[in-house]
Amino acid sequence: MSEPYIIKMPQLSDTMTEGVVVSWEKKIGDKVSRGDIVATVETDKAIMDVEVFRDGWLSGPLAAIDSSVPVGEAIGYLVEAPELVQRHGEVGEAPPASARELPRKVELEHGPDARAGEPAGCVHVIKMPQLSDTMTEGVVVSWEKKIGDKVSRGDIVAQVETDKAIMDVEVFREGWLSGPMVAADSVVQVGQPMAYLVESAEQVVRDTAAASAAPARKAEPAASAPVPVSAAAPLASVPPAPRPHNKTATPLARQLAASLHVNLNNLKGSGPSGEITADDVRRAQPIERPTEVAPAVPAHAMPEIQVPGHGRPMTAMEKAVSHSMTASLTMPTFRVSMNAKPDALLKAAKRKGVSVTVAIAKACAEAIRHHPSINWAYQPVDKLVERTQVDIGMAVSADGGGLVVPVLRHCEARSLEELHEAWKGLVERARKRRLAPEEYANPTFMVSNMGMLGVSYFDAIPTPGTAAILAIAAAGADGMPLTLTADHRVVNGAEVALFLNTLKNKIEQPEEWMGSLGPAIPEGNWDYDVVVIGGGPGGEDCARDLAGHGLKVAMINDAPFPGGECLWRGCIPSKAWRAAADRLRDRGGDALLGVVGTDKAKLDWEKLEQHRRSVLEERGSLALKTDKGVKIDVIQGFASFETDHRLFVDTSGNSDDPHHRARHGDGSAGRRITFGCAVIATGAPPFVPPIPGAREGVEAGGVLTSDTVWSLPKVPKRLGIVGGGAIGMEMAQIFQDFGSEVLLLERHERVLAEVEPEIARTLIAVLENDPRLTIVTNAATKAVKGKAGAMTLVYETAAGEQRYKCDYVLMATGKRPLLEPLKLDNAGVAVENGVIKADSRCRTSVPHIYAVGDVIGGYMLAHTAGQQGRVAAATILGEDMQYDETKDSGVIFTRPEAGFVGLSMDQAKARGIDAAEVKVPLNIDAKAMITGETHGLIKIVADKATNKIIGVHLLADHTDTLIGEAVMMVSGGMTLEQVGNAIHPHPTQTELFGELARRLLSRLRRSKAKKTA
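Structure (tokenized):
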């Protein structure tokens, strides 16, 4: 540090021109180290410490306490040795006659030529402030004070205009306003004098000054050892660059970065704790010789053709737009368009009490969350700025003409209500063109909405610093055109298409990210507030919840009694058979407990079937009475959509229906019903794959499905089953226990794909010990032949073609929704991969039409449909409720029973969750040993980061009872600590949960301790 290091008045805001020295924290002659605070200074808005990032000794002359010093001018110095300290100018003394009298030959910030125009007695130069990073000049709009006026601290003396804003010019010195003064409407370069303050009224100069650019300023040497002073960058009148994100930078580094157009966010600091220094900035200069400063070439500097005529000078705004648009021509852009229906968003914004503009901005931010590259930007040369903060600029018409683009900051993190409040103030200031620089500078994404002006289509032009701009036109028959113009250096066509698809969904389904919007029933004179199509678990639970809230509800069911597949053809009848099979199976374990003479139990098929049917009829009758009791209008018939608010209900098969008032196009009798909302809950019938002879066998009765197996006249001696899912596995073991010889074929490597892999493997090993049950995996069924009582199942394995002769073949090959009779196209309901497309709130592509249960795919389970029915009802009622598949559960009623709640390890890994699991075999459990039910295991899966239990998997004889506690663990987000500390009764199998939780928690703690050791 051969020459003194200058401690300057820092610039604490874009508009700050001077500061006041509040105190000196070091005395002249004190040793100063990097990071020391030497003084505090004050602006009109804040008091701030002045830190230095060099070692040395504090030297005079020091600016006196309470003195005002222009930004960038010296308030003190550092020298490299104690003997070089200058003692004059101690604190409290008057500064030297010239505040620019330095202990070395250094030119002033604004240059000697600028000083030459100052009047005698000048105490302050009023300069053109820099209101944005890209501003190079401004227009003097008006003078609020006249030459000769007395000026006090904080007075506004003038107004200046840039391309985007009008701003007051405040001064923080006292004096008299003096010329030479720049005239109103003059263009003045940033940092150049506009007028002066003098000490007394007698020193006032009444002249005006030319508004042309001032002579080039001389560079002030920046003291940095590795680079010669002569090579330092010019720092005059350039506001420092913004502080880098998650980094620190020295003041000189920020000043140099602004002068050299270097992005501090891209630099790696070499200073203490990674601090960015001036040398780091110099090394990052995008020129061949880092010790030279390349002249900045304006982005708009392109060859232009002369046009005849007399042109007027552009206003500052017109000029800025011209330059910006010309610079945009250097961007390789392309356009992608898509239509979105805006009605739902318009209604949602109205219900939320926010502007549609803000709702669109938030929708864009939500879409950017899924496609972040849309928010990035190209940076010369060959760099990409990857931004996470979403700052959206949206054009507003200014008073007097022109557009101003205020920027709505942090759209990704702030709520709609917060954004709405911020936007109101922005719009008000934008119309008057009174935005502060931080309110219009540097958007990361742009939206241009000309739809409000009736424009049917247009595309917009992105500007450097953004990767894309969204153009929104007026909505037509096909919806609202969305056109994204994007920079191909940053994003490709596929990314833009995916973004627009996501944005379309956000606009058409705003409840997904806005949350509850209140009751969802559209206004209208409807026959029913809500019509539920289907009387199974999903439809019935939904209808009951809605009716319980006082809505007028109709439930259309295709049978005389509600209950659906679960009651009549699934859960309930199969469990009656399972209960009988369990009684037979349990007799085999009686001898273990010393109970003798009970091992010759036999099945009376007729009595079992009589009991099963009586249970179903009683349950169905009770369900119908309950539905009517809560005032649900239960209609027997088959519904189809005529429009998105009208159904035709075919009641031809219901002779008791009094409403045969209409006939459909096919001649069927029935009634038309209008509705505000509809819920589709029609379930899914068994799927019969295109295996030769299968469909013919169903018609002839030799091939059974889960719908027709209940018509068996007796227990078959031999049964073939195709399909190793829950239905196939349950039926295989039930009939094995009934005495049938059973062959089960599964075309994949493993059965029970929905069950945790180890649970499935263990279950197969147990079932293979059943004497009359054979399970064959990797088996391709080739054909089904014969008639009822004499069927042949042809299949192929690695050993070749095989044949199995049996009485019947049961097709347990899953279920698929039958959607054609619903005529969904008439209502505009979207179908995807054979199921109705619905979101987590069970909304379809039509906002007032919902779908639940098997028709939307996923887990085709009765309790899943019931939960989704309750979710649909809650959403219609305006409550915030969602279906979460990661917390769903299921039980396969074999012996032992397989069960699951939540996620397996594989599923957790697929979702990016770092999980751990613990398991225990049942053969160590005292209760299982007593009853001889030792086959199986229990697993717990937990998130390592939170210790929350995210999955429980069971194989046990009493899984249907044990799983209740597991459901509460996962759905309640319980931790290993909570379950481990819970007091479970002994001896029960539930105490295994506490043991497992404590064991896994101990292991995770040991693992963490080892990592930190």
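Residues 605-629 form the longest helix (25 residues). The first strand starts at residue 5 and ends at 8.
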